[in-house]
Specification:
heterodimer; A: alpha+beta; Alpha-Beta Plaits; 2 domains; two-stranded antiparallel sheet; 3 helices; 4 strands; elongated; B: alpha/beta; Rossmann fold; 11 helices; 13% strand
Chain lengths: 131, 318
């Protein structure tokens, strides 16, 4: 797909989202979908990021605020649990960190090139409320 | 009428399989995709979608990629409403003739458009669709500016906003005209359901969308969509801006049923002053100069008057 220019494409062509017929798309999760190469799911915008969100599951309460407010469908939630971040599609906007309600936050932004384990090791302690 | 998807809480909602894909080219922190996801996830039915030219259309259908896992039509700047209305009319004709391959499926027809495509360019087309009474939903992603083409003013742009065609400077405080009251205009078409929503109040939004899907006839939804690029704020603050817009009553959340019954669906516990909302955005920063004080006062008065009007109308049931 990537090697084909716009002028080599047949007139009236249709870009299909899937290779196969999907019977009920609304109940088929991403891992079971036969994505075609023309679905933007197969593309990546990961190189837009300057900072990346890191997920610390020790503090997560599975409230799913990050899932609903993620503009890029990058928060992976399965069986009502938050299980991780899709770094192919995350643009690093930081909304998930802003809406995270836990103390300390279970999602924080770090420099894109920082090692994940290093980020998790330096996680901040719980903030005591000022009286 | 098909079954309404049960969404009791956010955990249950999060089991939805998204039909809008990532790696679209919308700006980081754009509220458009948050609104689109909340609309698409509110139903399990098949969808026929259309989008007017605008940020959403150019960013989700960049050759050779599509970000939509549903039938999606784009024709022109003005006619997402008529595209969907045509599809709906064809669906009804085929149904009547008994030529649908899967007659038990009940597709929903949704048109997405920006405020420029709805308030200005596509206004006549929407009006026509609502007059003819197609069974469809029209969702406006209201970011109050032509964001896709570089921030020109639209008739949704509020007073005092600095845009590229109404810039603020030595002689001007930016846009001088008031925002068009699209909600009242659409309600005056005697549309069965007209509602204003905000993505931060997801439960209110999903409830309204589901009600819209189960209403026979044209449904108009106006969704506030903060634009990080043209409103000039940090991408991470999108939800904070949406919170401010609903809590300061700049975007009151309400619904109008049959142009008779107005219900306010969200009353903020603590109403935030409008200057908090204006101060969070770069497009209004010139209003905080001493010579523009009267604009700020006008803003607060207009928002208060509008809230009073809505409350009176809700009480009077007209």
């Amino acid at each position: 797909m990537a090697n084909k220019g716009w002028d080599e494409f047949d007139a009236g062509a249709i870009l299909f989202s899937f290779n196969d017929k999907v019977d009920n798309i609304a109940t088929t999760l991403a891992e079971d979908r036969p994505y075609s190469p023309s679905n933007s799911f197969t593309a990546s915008v990961g190189d837009w990021r300057i900072e990346k969100p890191i997920f610390n599951k020790d503090y997560c309460i599975d409230c799913q605020f990050c899932w609903i407010y993620c503009p890029d469908v990058s928060i992976i939630a399965r069986d009502k649990k938050m299980i991780g971040i899709d770094f192919d599609h995350c643009k690093g906007c930081g909304i998930c960190v802003e809406v995270c309600p836990t103390n300390p936050k279970s999602l924080l932004m770090f420099d894109e090139h920082k090692d994940d384990d290093e980020c998790l090791a330096g996680w901040p302690e719980k903030d005591e409320k000022e009286k | 009428m098909s079954e309404i998807k049960k969404i009791k809480n956010l955990k249950e909602f999060s089991t939805s399989a998204d039909r809008f894909e990532g790696a679209n080219l919308l700006c980081p922190g754009c509220a458009h995709s948050i609104i689109v996801r909340e609309v698409l996830n509110a139903t399990n039915d098949d969808l026929v979608l259309a989008a007017s030219t605008g940020c959403l259309e150019v960013c989700t259908a960049v050759y050779p990629y599509t970000s939509w896992d549903a039938s999606w039509i784009h024709i022109g700047f003005e006619n997402s409403s008529t595209a969907v209305a045509g599809a709906e009319a064809m669906y009804n004709a085929l149904k009547r003739k008994g030529r649908l391959p899967q007659p038990d499926r009940t597709p929903k027809f949704v048109a997405f458009a920006g405020d420029g495509a709805s308030y200005d360019i596509g206004f006549q087309w929407i009006s026509g669709c609502f007059e003819r009474g197609h069974d469809m939903m029209y969702v406006v992603l209201d970011n109050e500016v032509y964001a896709n083409t570089g921030g020109q003013r639209s008739s949704s742009t509020p007073v005092g906003s600095s845009t590229t065609t109404a810039p603020a400077g030595r002689v001007s405080y930016g846009e001088k005209k008031e925002k068009k009251d699209m909600m009242s205009i659409m309600a005056a078409h005697h549309a069965p359901y007209v509602a204003q929503v905000a993505p931060n109040k997801w439960k209110d939004m999903v409830k309204k969308i589901q009600r819209g899907f189960n209403t026979v006839g044209p449904v108009f939804i106006n969704a506030v969509s903060p634009c990080t690029t043209e409103w000039k704020f940090d991408p991470a603050d999108t939800m904070m801006l949406t919170d401010l817009s609903t809590d300061s009553l700049v975007f009151p959340l309400y619904e109008i049923i049959d142009n008779k019954e107005l219900n306010i669906t969200y009353r903020p516990k603590n109403v935030v002053p409008v200057i908090d909302y204006l101060g969070a955005q770069g497009r209004f920063k010139h209003l905080f100069k001493p010579e523009n004080k009267h604009i700020l006062d006008g803003w607060q008065k207009r928002v208060d008057d509008n809230w009073d009007y809505l409350q009176r109308r809700e009480e009077a049931r007209v």
